[in-house]
Specification:
The protein is α+β, with helices and mostly antiparallel strands and about 60 residues long. The protein is built from 1 helix and 2 strands; from the N terminus they run H-E-E. It has a two-stranded antiparallel sheet with strand order 1-2.
Length: about 60
């Protein structure tokens, strides 16, 4: 089983390491916001190792 990383941290890393560089390269003038919103314990910081057994992983929404 993978090492537990809180969902907010996992999504932050995903954005900084993958999403942001891709958007800057493809759309350098694009004004956007990225956020982790919606259902899930990780949105409020209540996730734990037990959260890894269902819908656990990096995610975010981009609004342009």
């Amino acid at each position: 089983m993978p090492i537990f990383i809180p969902g907010v941290e996992l999504s932050r890393r995903f954005y900084e390491e993958i999403v942001h560089p891709l958007l800057v390269e493809a759309y350098p003038e694009l004004a956007y916001a990225a956020a982790l919103i919606g259902p899930g314990s990780e949105v409020l910081g209540f996730d734990s190792e037990m959260s890894m057994d269902h819908d656990w992983g990096p995610r975010l929404f981009i609004y342009g």
